């Protein structure tokens, strides 16, 4: 009962490769901030959506270690394990996620899912060789529905995600409203609109850290070369090198100008995040500086310092404490998700 009375803040981080600073600042850090400052008021669910891991091809032999890497990173980043209303869990350990996905699937149009930007982008990439392992998977098409189930099963109100997931959050709201209306009852809590989500997390917009080599695209863990991506498990020296060789421009002076100087603007963004300051503040400090080398060195040092500290904490994570917390959370969340599923099964006539 106590669990249901608090509002829920929830997010999931896939484990299909090493995590990046995009994942860290886009989703992990906002969750840790909430968990460390507001766990009295809110229930905090940070989970590993393991069923989402192979919507695109992965090495399945590495999945278990990737899942554990995520869990350890949550703890190293500061997630407290000793609070009763903070939960960590693996999606596939709670079967209601899959069952709810099927039910929701039957109320969603093909066109709606086909319009999802992420599907269009990723399927375009995969589509180049239309056979075997590389063909576009139904799972990739369908995954916003699984994501909606992840959110709705726990009646989540706030869902911190990076900019690339905003559309899926809007979709989740649509589905919740649609089913509540159709079955004339409050089956699901409708997550707050995206704008209110940003306000809640103290931002004016969704975060999108760009690739260091190609600052017109998102920094992504599934990037093949990884040269423009800072992974949380990169050696601090390698990460610093990646920053030093980041693509800039020929303007020759630092300005916050996403259109004409996306590389420099991205580095300003990254520096601001590491210094816990606003991008405007950092930009005004560097504005007009013509020493790109000096600027990059400052960013590289900030990245390096952060990774040294995080990896040090990572080495100290106690796996048995994580396992104990994980099992307790999975048992508790199975009950919560089971209740929402049962309510839905009754509404659609299955029970
Ligand atoms: P995933 O695993 O790809 O990414 C995890 C989170 O990191 C954010 N992110 C970024 N933020 C800013 N800049 C970037 N370059 C960057 N790259 C990634 C993502 O926006 C995301 O918030 N479908 C989700 C996982 C998921 C989920 C959920 C999230 C499954 N079920 C339920 C919330 C609620 C995904 O693939 O994120």
Describe this structure in words.
The chain is mainly alpha-helical and 351 residues long. The protein folds into 2 domains: 8-207 and 319-348, HUPs (Rossmann fold); 236-314, Tyrosyl-Transfer RNA Synthetase (Orthogonal Bundle). It has helices at residues 2-5, 21-37, 63-76, 96-105, 110-114, 117-126, 138-152, 166-182, 194-200, 236-244, 262-274, 279-286, 292-315, 319-348; strands spanning 7-12, 42-48, 86-90, 156-158. Strands 3-2-1-4 form a 4-stranded parallel beta sheet, with helices on both faces. The longest helix is centred in the C-terminal third of the chain and has 30 residues, at 319-348. The mean pLDDT is 94. Bound molecules: tryptophanyl-5'AMP. Tryptophanyl-5'AMP is lined by residues 11-14, 22-23, 26-27, 49, 52, 147, 150-151, 159, 161-162, 164-165, 207-209, 218-220.
């Amino acid at each position: 009962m106590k669990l249901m009375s608090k509002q829920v803040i929830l997010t999931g981080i896939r484990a299909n490769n090493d995590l990046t600073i995009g994942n860290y600042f886009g989703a992990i850090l906002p969750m840790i901030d909430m968990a460390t400052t507001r766990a009295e008021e809110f229930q905090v669910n940070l989970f590993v959506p393991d069923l989402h891991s192979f919507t695109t091809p992965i090495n399945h032999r590495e999945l278990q270690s990737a899942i554990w890497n995520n869990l350890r990173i949550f703890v190293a980043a500061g997630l407290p394990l000793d609070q009763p209303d903070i939960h960590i869990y693996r999606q596939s350990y709670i079967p209601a996620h899959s069952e709810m996905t099927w039910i929701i699937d039957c109320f969603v149009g093909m066109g709606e899912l086909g319009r999802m930007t992420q599907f269009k982008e990723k399927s375009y990439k995969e589509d180049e060789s239309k056979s075997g392992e590389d063909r576009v998977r139904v799972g990739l098409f369908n995954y916003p529905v699984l994501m909606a189930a992840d959110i709705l099963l726990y009646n989540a109100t706030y869902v911190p995600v990076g900019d690339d997931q905003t559309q899926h959050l809007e979709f989740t709201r649509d589905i919740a409203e649609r089913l509540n209306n159709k079955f004339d009852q409050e089956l699901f809590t409708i997550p707050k609109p995206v704008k209110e989500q940003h306000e809640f997390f103290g931002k004016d917009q969704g975060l999108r850290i760009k690739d260091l080599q190609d600052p017109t695209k998102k920094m992504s863990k599934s990037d093949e070369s990884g040269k423009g991506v800072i992974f949380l498990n990169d050696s601090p020296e390698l990460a610093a090198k990646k920053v030093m060789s980041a693509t800039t421009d020929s303007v020759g002076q630092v300005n916050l100008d996403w259109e004409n100087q996306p590389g420099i603007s991205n580095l300003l963004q990254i520096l601001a995040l590491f210094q816990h300051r606003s991008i405007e503040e950092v930009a005004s400090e560097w504005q007009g500086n013509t020493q790109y080398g000096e600027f990059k060195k400052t960013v590289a040092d900030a990245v390096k310092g952060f990774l040294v500290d995080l990896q040090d904490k990572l080495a100290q994570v106690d796996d048995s404490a994580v396992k104990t917390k994980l099992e307790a959370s999975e048992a508790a969340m199975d009950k919560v998700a089971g209740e929402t599923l049962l309510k839905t099964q009754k509404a659609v006539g299955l029970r």
